Amino acid sequence: QVQLVESGGGSVQAGGSLRLACTASGFTLRNMRVGWFRQAPGEEREGVTCIAAGGRASYYAAFVQGRFTISQDNTKNTAYLEMNSLKPDDTSMYYCAAAGDDIDSPFCTPKYYTHWGQGTQVTVSS
């Protein structure tokens, strides 16, 4: 069974930090393109940060540049999203995703991803 399971969401005050984790089962993330996305109520899902297979190239949305970092630990088959200097506008459901092609480009739109986590809520208060 192919599955992504997320953890680490919660509620924080503006300026705080969270670290989201996404553990894969049924496949390995080592050579997968991995992404983090978010979706607020009534809005389309949007790319937050994505990393190409092998970790050679990354993409960060302008609204998180300098505040969020994507990484992965292949020994744990887990991807992470480090979130710093959180703002109320960051409030959303956050999803991790993966895709198995071998293109060395951090495509960061939902249509390029085939495996998805269940989502975890991040709420930032002022």
Give your account of this protein's structure.
The chain is mainly β and 126 residues long. Helix content is 0%, strand content 48%. It contains no helices and 11 strands. The chain has strands at residues 3-7, 10-13, 18-25, 33-39, 46-51, 58-60, 68-73, 78-83, 92-99, 115-116, 120-125. Strands 2, 4, 5, 6, 9, 10 and 11 form a 7-stranded mixed beta sheet that branches. A 4-stranded antiparallel beta sheet has the order 1-3-8-7, with no helix packed on it. Strand 4 and strand 5 form a beta hairpin. The protein starts with a strand and ends with a strand. 35% of the residues are buried.
| First-to-last CA distance | 40 Å
Strand proportion = over 45%
Low-confidence regions: none
The percent range for helix content is under 10%
Q: Please tell me the overall pLDDT.
A: 94
What structural class is derived from the secondary structure elements? mainly beta
Shape: globular
β-strand number = 11
Radius of gyration, rounded? 13 Å
Number of helices: 0
For the biggest sheet, the summary is: 7 strands, mixed
Secondary-structure element series: EEEEEEEEEEE
